[in-house]
Each structure stands twice: as structure tokens, then as C-alpha cells.
């Protein structure tokens, strides 16, 4: 569970996307940035979340949002995920877990009685000045875009 709070400076990052292009927080200065952290490419919940954002991508963009997905999957996995579902946004390959740790979304989880380290599905909206404006730690995967858009009404 993240210790970041609304109003905090978003942690800087420098992480390669699915094409090996390094992306940084400062690349998005002056824009609202949706950072959605998800556990794994091509899993049911993560696919539902990514497709919800894809289906509302035009509306999100029209409201001034940029989007980046982040997981610990590698670039090749991200490329396949993007191609399979025609995702219109980049996915960052944080294989080192540096960004995951900075945002406090990597840590102990439980599933079916087993404990393991993994990614807690969390979305941060970073404002035009690099401050955290919204945090979603109870993501509705099938309707995440609406969840984000409704928080700005």
C-alpha cells in the first residue's frame, strides 16, 4: 500500500516503454498524467482495466489526460499486450522495480492463501505541476476510465 498522499510531489521516474524509449515524469510537465500500476499483462483484471482506459481514451485525451501503464513485465510482453488489444498508450517496463517501489505499489500480497511480493493495482493522477492530484487504490477494473472521469465532475 502506497504511503504517497494527495498533494505530494510525484516521484520522478525514468523508465523505458514497450519500444525501449525512456520516458520521464518531466516529459509530461504541463499535462495531467494518469499512471496506472497493474500486476501483469494479459491477465483478466489487467486486460479489463487497460481496455476500459482504451475504450475511453478519446474522452480522457479531450479532458487533457495522458496515460501510462506500468508493470514489472518486460518490453516484449508489453508489445504483445498492446498489439493484442490495440492499446493507444505506452506501457512502462519497470523490471528493476525502481518506479514500483518509489510509488509504494510493490510489496507483500496474498492470493488463495499464499503470500508473495507483487504489484498492488493503484492509479495516480499527477497534475500539471507534478503533484499527486488523485489516488485510486480500489480500482474498478472494468470501468476504471469512468472512475477517473467521474472524480473530475
Blueprint (SSEs and pairs):
Layout: E1 14-16, E2 22-24, E3 32-37, H1 44-55, H2 57-62, E4 65-71, H3 75-85, E5 90-93, H4 98-102, E6 106-111, E7 114-119, E8 122-126, E9 132-136, H5 144-150
CATH architecture: 3-Layer(aba) Sandwich
- CATH topology (level 3) name: Glutaredoxin
**How many discrete domains?**
1
Unreliable parts: none
Q: What's the helical proportion of residues?
A: 25-40%
Shape: globular
Distance between the termini: 27 Å
Strands of the widest sheet, in order across it, are 5-4-3-8-9
Number of DSSP E strands: 9
CATH class category label: Alpha Beta
Order of helices and strands: EEEHHEHEHEEEEH
Describe the main β-sheet briefly.
Answer: 5 strands, mixed
- State the helix count: 5
Query: What would the average pLDDT be, to the nearest integer?
Result: 95
Please describe the structure with a list of short key phrases separated by commas or semicolons:
153 residues; alpha/beta; Glutaredoxin; five-stranded mixed beta sheet; two-stranded antiparallel sheet; 5 helices; globular
Amino acid at each position: 500500500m502506497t504511503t504517497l498522499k494527495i498533494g505530494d510531489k510525484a516521484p520522478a521516474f525514468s523508465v523505458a516503454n514497450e519500444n525501449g524509449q525512456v520516458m520521464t515524469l518531466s516529459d509530461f510537465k504541463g499535462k495531467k498524467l494518469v499512471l496506472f500500476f497493474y500486476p501483469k499483462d494479459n491477465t483478466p483484471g489487467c486486460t479489463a482495466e487497460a481496455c476500459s482506459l482504451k475504450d475511453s481514451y478519446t474522452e480522457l485525451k479531450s479532458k487533457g489526460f495522458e496515460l501510462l501503464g506500468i508493470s514489472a513485465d518486460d518490453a516484449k510482453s508489453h508489445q504483445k499486450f498492446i498489439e493484442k488489444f490495440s492499446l493507444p498508450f505506452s506501457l512502462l517496463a519497470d523490471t528493476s522495480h525502481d518506479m514500483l517501489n518509489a510509488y509504494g505499489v510493490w510489496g507483500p500480497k496474498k492470493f488463495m492463501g499464499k503470500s508473495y511480493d507483487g504489484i498492488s493495482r493503484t492509479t495516480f493522477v499527477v497534475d500539471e505541476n507534478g503533484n499527486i492530484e488523485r489516488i485510486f487504490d480500489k480500482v474498478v477494473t472494468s470501468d476504471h476510465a469512468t472512475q477517473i472521469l467521474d472524480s473530475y465532475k
